[in-house]
């Protein structure tokens, strides 16, 4: 996201591992684009609970918008202006056998769903 790669749709990276409201609410990645605040919740595997968690984070931000605006408007890398909406996106590992169910549940939770794919990486030691 820092490199503004095309796959990230022009979203500017603002912060990672951000804690503002309470210690149980840690935002994995925060981004900003066109008066929208993006919250990415990263999951190592596939989980329906991640969709609910992501939706809850969007509600938390909307309920505490002045606090988030105060902090994020002074962030050094990417200044966040006033945001009109929060876009919550769950990011999890892709699997063809569960993609349809996750997509359906993401729509129900009103969150975005992005997948990452694990690549085969070999590291020769000896």
What this model shows, in words?
It is a single chain. Helices cover 28% and strands 29% of the residues. With 126 residues, it is of the alpha/beta class. It has one domain: Trna Endonuclease, Chain: A, domain 1, CATH 3.40.1350. A 5-stranded mixed beta sheet has the order 1-2-3-4-5. Helix 1 runs parallel beside helix 3 (99-109). The termini are far apart.
Q: What's the short story on this structure?
A:
By secondary structure, the chain is of the alpha/beta class. It has one domain (6-116): Trna Endonuclease, Chain: A, domain 1. It has three helices and five strands, in the order βββααβαβ.
| CATH architecture grouping | 3-Layer(aba) Sandwich
Strand percent estimate? 25-35%
Shape call:
globular
E-strand count: 5
Largest sheet: 5 strands, mixed
Q: If you average the pLDDT, what whole number results? A: 83
Level of helix content? Answer: 25-40%
Task: Provide the spatial order of strands within the biggest beta sheet.
Answer: 1-2-3-4-5
Tally of individual domains? 1
- List the uncertain runs: none
What structural class do the secondary elements suggest? alpha/beta
Radius of gyration: 16 Å
**What is the CATH first-level class name?**
Alpha Beta
Series of H and E elements? EEEHHEHE
Distance between the termini: 35 Å
């Amino acid at each position: 996201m820092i490199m503004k790669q095309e796959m990230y749709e022009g979203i500017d990276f603002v912060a990672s591992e951000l804690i503002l409201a309470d210690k149980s609410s840690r935002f994995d990645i925060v981004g900003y684009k066109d008066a929208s605040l993006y919250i990415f919740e990263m999951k190592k595997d596939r989980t329906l609970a991640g969709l609910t968690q992501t939706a809850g984070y969007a509600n938390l931000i909307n309920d505490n918008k002045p606090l988030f605006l105060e902090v994020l408007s002074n962030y050094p890398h990417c200044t966040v202006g006033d945001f009109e909406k929060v876009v919550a996106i769950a990011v999890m590992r892709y699997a063809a056998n569960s993609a349809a169910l996750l997509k359906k549940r993401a729509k129900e939770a009103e969150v975005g769903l992005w997948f990452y794919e694990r690549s085969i990486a070999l590291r020769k030691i000896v």
